[in-house]
Design brief:
Blueprint (H helix, E strand, L loop, with lengths): L1 E5 L3 H12 L3 E5 L3 H8 L10 H10 L3 E4 L2 H5 L4 E4 L15 H13 L4 E5 L7 H12 L5 E5 L9 H6 L4 E4 L3 H10 L1 H4 L5 E4 L1 H32 L3 H9 L20 H14 L5 H24 L8 E5 L15 H10 L3 E5 L4 H5 L6 E2 L12 E4 L11 H7 L4 E4 L6 H6 L3 E3 L11
Parallel strand pairs: 1-2, 1-4, 2-3, 4-5, 5-6, 7-8, 9-10, 9-12, 10-11, 12-13, 13-14
Helix pairs in contact: 1-3, 5-6, 10-12, 10-13, 12-13, 13-14
Length: about 450
Amino acid sequence: MRIAMIGTGYVGLVSGACFSEFGVEVVCVDRDEKKIDMLLAGEMPIYEPGLDTLVASNVKAGRLSFSTNLPQAVRGADAVFIAVGTPTRRGDGHADLTYVFAAAREIARSISGYTVIVDKSTVPVGTGLEVEKVVREVRPDAQFDVVSNPEFLREGSAIEDFMRPDRVVIGAESERAREVMRELYRPLYLIETPIVFTTRQTAELIKYAANTFLATKITFINEVADLCEKLGADIQDVAKGIGLDGRIGRKFLHAGPGYGGSCFPKDTLALVHTARDAGSPLRIVETVVDVNEQRKRRMADKVAAALGGDVAGKTIAVLGLTFKPNTDDMRDSPSLVIVPALRQAGAMLRVFDPEGMSEARKLIEDVEWCDTAYETMGGADVLVILTEWNEFRALDLARVKRMMRTPILVDMRDIYNPREMAEAGFHYHCVGRPYIAPQH
């Protein structure tokens, strides 16, 4: 089979590379010449573990290629995937579908013969119908179907998620389109992956409902963590105790500074507005959005509290800037709220992230950029862990203590043991766990 992937962002590049690993001939298309030039040179425009190797092997095998020529890539393709961005639209919170519809028009002008046009981007319910109308307006004579095939990739483990997914959701209105999609995903039948066929509207809603539920789960455990701090309970034990219930599950029960990234913030907001427009508001989700935004701001107050209530004139070492480890994605990262708030309060910040520094420099101002984790700590009044990168999990505590002006650590990801930190002489402040005073 032959497919074209329109968009070489996170979803398009990972999906295109993984399909080519299945033996499909894939052309990834982007109008950004700089990005295509990078890919042709073997350079990855995003950081995702294992992606560079996967891309290189399939380019070498002749199954994966990159181009700025959309008409050439689309012509003769069995399926064309739309994997462009759907950011939050300025002013009203809805998903901006400008790039989706623009891609649909270009595809319409280029398809030849029966083609399945696949919405891979996260889009509101009803977008598939609108894409169909756009294509039909441009090419009344075209033979095509529009399918919804939402992605469920986690940044940092996207390749594994694509190759061994929990499920594949396909919203299609004709058996002919379903057959094309079955053939594309046929390799996953070998590992008995559930393939869920639905209508387009249902598939579109499944994506939003899944992300919104996970965002709700994160926000719930964060609020319980706050309660734990008031009552002297331990959030990690609470999470374990409820997570062992099969009806609840262990995943996404890790307290922290709030969710961020490319999906949860914009998808929760988009679903809120979709539900309001439909006259069926989702009150729980509205609260989740509000609580998460407030939480990020309150995390700066947590740092100030560890310093006695005032950060003015203090030096703060910050480890981790990306919204999660194993990615360079800074979109809606809690650091984009916490770091500026501390700076505005008069603190001096020294920051480091293993992969996110290049992106962070575009978004964060007036901080000192460091080359290593330990470089941030010299003379620091407090050390703050914002992202749980593996290299932060086993710091040399004796060295950290020697380097810092005062041994205060605010761990917003709960990666250390409070009792062990107290024994090491640290004032250790984490999320949802009892404070234990340092023993020496």
